[in-house]
Every structure is written in C-alpha cells, then in structure tokens.
Write a structure and sequence with these properties.
Glutaredoxin-like protein nrdH, 23% helix, 152 residues, six-stranded mixed beta sheet, alpha+beta, Deoxyribonuclease I, Chain A
C-alpha cells in the first residue's frame, strides 16, 4: 500500500487506498453517504476528500501534476444513498463524470436493495475492464456488489 486515508464526516465516510496493482498505481475508494444528505453536502464531501485526483487540481498545482494524480485509475464503490433509478440522481452521476472523470459502471435500473432501489454503485476512471454484479446476501437489506477487474 502506498497511501491510505479515511475520513468520517456528518455527510458520510470515505476510505481510500492508493496501491500498485499489476504495476499500475490505482486508487480504490469505498464510500458511505448518510441518508438524506443534500446534493450540496454530497458534492462538498467528495470534493473535500478527492480534490487532488481531479484534472483541475493537476492544472492548478504543479506538485499534483508531477505526481500524476489527475490521471491515476480509480475504482470507487459504496452506498451512495441516492436512488440512482430516479431522474434527480442524474445530477450526482454528472457531477462524478465531469469533476472526477468517473463513469458509472453499475446499471441503475437494477436494484441493490430489497426495497427495489439502486443506492449502491461502482464508478471507475481509466479502468479498462471491470465486471460488476449483485452478490446474493441473506443477511443485509442491501444486495452487495461484487466487482472483478483484470489486468489485460
């Protein structure tokens, strides 16, 4: 492990591990966003914790550009507590894409809870191959996501 950070705030929790996988530096992030958080709070939460991994930060700060943080592959997953099936969640998906270049890799039409909502997600940046599916769990309200990536 090259770098590990963990933060807990009123909006949620985030744990990020920067590691070398198959010779490639990769950031693996897991998040929990508290229910009923406002979109403004959610965006601030992600910006506060992941700003150095944006292209904008690389353009503004020479030290960040030299380390290549704006181009490092990212796998981000977790409980977003926004129903991605609903149209209003598009704002969050667009924020992740435009701010961090993160693409949603899970299908928002597939439920991740027993209640039929899709509040768990996987986003990636510069990761060529990743497969994500629901994992069967008999002990949780959530249907956990299982992601597999390969090195080719």
């Amino acid at each position: 492990l090259d770098r590990t950070t963990a933060t807990s705030e009123h909006c949620g929790d985030i744990c990020a591990v920067e590691s070398t996988i198959n010779g490639q530096r990769t950031l693996i992030v897991t998040v929990y966003v508290s229910p009923n958080s406002t979109m403004e709070d959610i965006e601030c939460f992600f910006l506060t914790n992941l700003l150095m991994y944006t292209q904008k930060a690389s353009e503004m700060f020479e030290q960040i550009r030299k380390k290549g943080y704006g181009q490092i592959p990212i796998i981000l997953s977790g409980d977003i507590n926004l129903d991605l099936k609903k149209p209003e969640s598009r704002q969050f998906i667009n924020f992740m894409r435009h701010t961090f270049e993160l693409q949603l890799k899970t299908d928002p039409s597939i439920s991740t809870t027993r209640g039929g909502s899709c509040i768990d997600a996987v986003f990636t940046r510069h990761v060529d191959r990743i497969d994500t599916a629901n994992y069967v769990s008999y002990f949780s309200y959530h249907k956990p996501l299982l992601s597999i990536t390969s090195s080719n």
